[in-house]
Amino acid sequence: MAVAIKKADTKDLVTPHWHEKANEIQKWGTVTQDLPLGLDADVRAKSCKALNQLLADSIALRDLYKKHHWQVAGPTFYQLHLLFDKHFDEQVEIVDTIAERIQLLGGVTIAMGGDVAEVTSIPRPPRGKEEVPVQISRLLEAHKIIIEECRKIAKQADDNGDDGTNDLAVSDVLRTNELQAWFIMQHLVDMPLVHAK
What is the number of other CB atoms lying within 10 angstroms of the CB of residue 19? Predict the structure, then answer.
């Protein structure tokens, strides 16, 4: 049976409400209570804090890969252009996985570029183009920061009984970053292009 909608009601349904404002429903740095995870709120808060740092650094690395993908030049352009984009896509997955874990633990994820820029441990590159060895060095340094963080997070999570965070830090983030660092590192090997030594 159809319900008749009054003309005044129709306007309310289709007119957007612009510039809505309200209080935050959860403050940054807090975790929700009473989640059926078997983890105390203080354990979840510690994991969320560490994961938010890892998230900020992973977002910075992801964006560094895209910057270098766009700005790479030279004899290895094609290979690095493709590799940087492949690694970018993998970092997109990592970022989403970390963010979902933070939300699952009842935390609030860092999300906006300005906030990430304030929090990340990864040094900000210049806006302009850099030579390939500098691009690769920047990426390796970023991977090193993230790899070290993963080990600390895994240990903390293990000590606190947070097996899900431990698994994420090792299986999803650490292993992917180690593999990406290895691929990138191989581009710094001094090998002749035309003649053997």
Answer: 4
User: CB–CB of 149/57 below 8 Å?
Assistant: yes
**Please, are residues 180 and 87 in contact by the beta-carbon 8 Å criterion?**
yes
Tokens standing for residue 93: 């997955």
* Strands (DSSP E) found in the chain: none
Give CA–CA dist 65/68, Å, rounded: 5
CATH of domain 41-188: 1.20.1260.10
- Asked if residues 47 and 98 have their Cβ atoms less than 8 Å apart, the reply is no
Token duo for residue 45: 């808060």
Q: Domain locations in the chain?
A: 41-188
DSSP class of residue 157 equals H
Q: Tell me the three state secondary structure of residue 37.
A: coil
Within 10 A of 133 (CB to CB), how many other CB atoms are there? 11
Per-residue pLDDT of 139-197, as tens digits, reads 999 999 999 999 999 999 999 999 999 999 999 999 999 999 999 999 887 766 666 67
